[in-house]
Write a structure and sequence with these properties.
alpha+beta; ten-stranded antiparallel β-sheet; 24 helices; 10 strands
Length: about 600
């Protein structure tokens, strides 16, 4: 029979998981509530509840976040992205493998979400230059970050489970524990994607109501050959064009200009029909020569956001770009109206793409979500200013933000390599190696200390800190041991390999809905206890479950990198499931093979 502390712990875990799944509270807030609930209920002591703040895992994660930030700020990752753009060509298979392999490589030593974010603009540019649709490249890019995380110790779930081992008196884990099996999975996954997975990728270039911001802007570029400039003009109430259809306006026949889009109030009309009537106050997006556009001033048309008839010469040309809301954005949960986006950045949001749908009416009222893609139009200078903001990811490479410390690129790469080598080869404990790297990056000017603090994803840190006491609670109450016995009774008659396979499948199922950090704490604790109960190598079991925590292939919500690709790729949730099933099978088969070959599990 379950004891009172066990029942109370099960209730706390169930409520926490249900709250995370409902989306009513952020996961990091839920984790802190869990930590407090465990302490107040007496399931763990106050010292145990707060012990997460002093764990080496937290120091390691903070160090990795800061190192990733330094590589971004010095332009090291941008340099790699630029090389990828130069290598882009018409060979779709080569591009799929190239981006998947590169994202996997980056994820060996930097956070996977950061790797996905810095490669995303490069992938979009290569897609445009190579006439390959983004939907063919972005799922492989995201999945690449996941398989890269399987082959390295420097992944949040892997670090957490290594810490659980140490907490139970076992040796920790290192890079060499993950690389053989994880590398085997990565190679098999690349082959799968090149041969079969690419055939399951959506080939989506939507039009009309279902067009994504990316496909809309790309269509405009391809259809109208935008080597000429674009201009934004406003129709004044007294203009002769008011209530006149485009076909009779003379904009095309008389001036030789093309109307690419109209935005009227809160509605965007892209590629308007010739019968579309022009209204007073309409903004028109025009393509053509400046001297022709300037002639519109005689028709009571104002050029640009200001009155273009002033004495000073202004450049009123505009451009289109796509902007994605990244995982760490402060804009999440706020609408463009709340953010006063147009007043602050001087850009018009033409359309919003979310979960397979395009919205072009009242987009300013939508609370923004991670992965939302926004089609923006405005002056080039304003787009470049927006690219400097870390709350928005501008996908057009020509407007990309310039790294603040490009002259320090070689320093950042060298320091990162030394720090990682010190951790991998055991010269220093991993957490100390990360801190040494951080201090060296600050002292050499690769980033200042304030930039270092801003580089830390504190939501992840507090999520891990809040959830780690669950591991202690599961051991202290005996719940981990009880669940382990149930697993052993059900699977041990079929052998150790079947038992391990069951734990891996359980992990893969849970991670699709609650993410890797929470899964690592809950399943990792059970897995290590199970191994100790039956005399299996707990490190082998820990590695298997940790790798399974990265198998977040089936749903967008399973991993922030998947969410980030939703808008730019024009994906639907089912797209990840269709391609991801094969990735799950490949991962499971190769993981079991790796356990047999490298760990001797039978």
């Amino acid at each position: 029979m379950l004891s009172t502390p066990e029942i109370l712990l099960i209730v706390i875990i169930a409520i926490a998981l249900a709250t995370i799944l409902s989306g009513k509270l952020r996961a990091d807030v839920v984790a802190l509530i869990v930590m407090l609930a465990l302490a107040i209920s007496g399931i763990v002591t106050s010292e145990e509840a707060l012990s997460g703040f002093s764990r080496p895992v937290i120091v390691t994660l903070i160090g990795l976040f800061i190192i990733s930030r330094a590589l971004e700020d010095t332009g090291a990752i941008q340099w790699l992205a630029d090389r990828l753009r130069q290598m882009g060509n018409e060979n779709e298979v080569r591009l799929i493998v190239l981006f998947m392999a590169t994202s996997a490589l980056l994820s060996l030593f930097m956070k996977s979400v950061a790797a996905a974010a810095v490669l995303l603009p490069a992938a979009m540019q290569v897609a445009r230059d190579s006439n390959v649709r983004p939907s063919r490249l972005l799922i492989p890019l995201s999945f690449g970050t996941l398989i890269g995380g399987m082959a390295t110790f420097f992944t949040t779930a892997n670090i957490i489970i290594g810490d659980i081992l140490i907490e139970q008196g076992q040796p920790g884990l290192g890079m060499i524990d993950f690389l053989p099996t994880g590398g085997l999975i990565a190679i098999a996954a690349l082959i799968y994607m090149a041969v079969l997975g690419r055939r399951l990728l959506p080939d989506r270039e939507s039009v009309g109501q279902n067009a994504s911001p990316r496909s809309l802007s790309r269509s405009l570029y391809e259809t109208y050959q935008l080597e000429d400039r674009m201009w934004e003009v406003r129709v004044q109430p007294g203009s002769k064009l008011v209530d006149m259809p485009l076909s009779r306006s003379g904009i095309g026949e008389t001036l030789g200009l093309t109307v690419l889009a109209i935005w009227r109030g809160h509605e965007a009309i892209l590629n308007p029909e010739p019968t579309e009537r022009i209204g007073a106050g309409d903004y028109l997006l025009l393509l053509g020569r400046e001297d022709r556009v300037s002639m519109l001033s005689e028709w009571k048309i104002s050029i640009g956001r200001d009155n273009g008839n002033g004495t000073h010469r202004h450049d009123y040309s505009v451009d289109l770009t796509e902007v994605v809301i990244p995982p760490r954005s402060a804009a999440v949960g706020k609408s463009l109206r709340d953010l006063r986006f147009r007043n602050k950045y001087g850009l018009t949001t033409v359309a919003l793409w979310r979960e397979g749908r395009s919205y072009r009416t009242d987009v300013g009222t939508f609370p923004l979500q991670v992965g939302d893609a926004l089609l923006q139009v405005g002056p080039v200078s304003k787009i470049r200013s927006l690219a400097q903001e870390r709350d928005y990811l501008v996908l057009q490479s020509s407007h990309a933000a310039r790294p603040p410390h490009p002259e320090k690129m070689l320093w950042s790469v060298a320091i990162t390599a030394v720090a990682l080598a010190a951790a991998i080869f055991g010269v220093l404990p991993t957490e100390e190696a990360m801190l040494v790297g951080v201090v060296a990056l600050v002292l050499t000017g690769c980033l200042n200390i304030d930039e270092a603090y801003r580089g830390v994803e504190w939501r992840v840190i507090f999520l891990v800190v809040g959830m780690l006491p669950l591991s202690i609670a599961m051991v202290n109450t005996g719940l981990a041991n009880r669940i382990s016995l149930v697993v052993i009774d059900a699977l041990s008659p079929y052998g150790s390999l079947a038992l391990l396979g069951g734990l891996v499948l359980l992990t893969m199922a849970i991670v699709q809905v609650v993410g890797s950090q929470v899964t690592a704490v809950i399943v990792g604790t059970i897995a290590v206890n199970t191994a100790l109960e039956i005399g299996m190598d707990p490190r082998a079991v820990a590695v298997a479950v940790a790798i399974a925590c990265s198998a977040a292939f089936l749903t967008p919500i399973a991993h922030p990198g998947n969410v980030l690709m939703m808008g730019p790729g024009g994906y639907r949730p089912s797209d990840f499931t269709r391609v991801g099933i094969g990735m799950i099978i490949i991962t499971f088969v190769m993981l079991m093979f790796g356990m047999i070959v490298f760990w001797g599990v039978r």
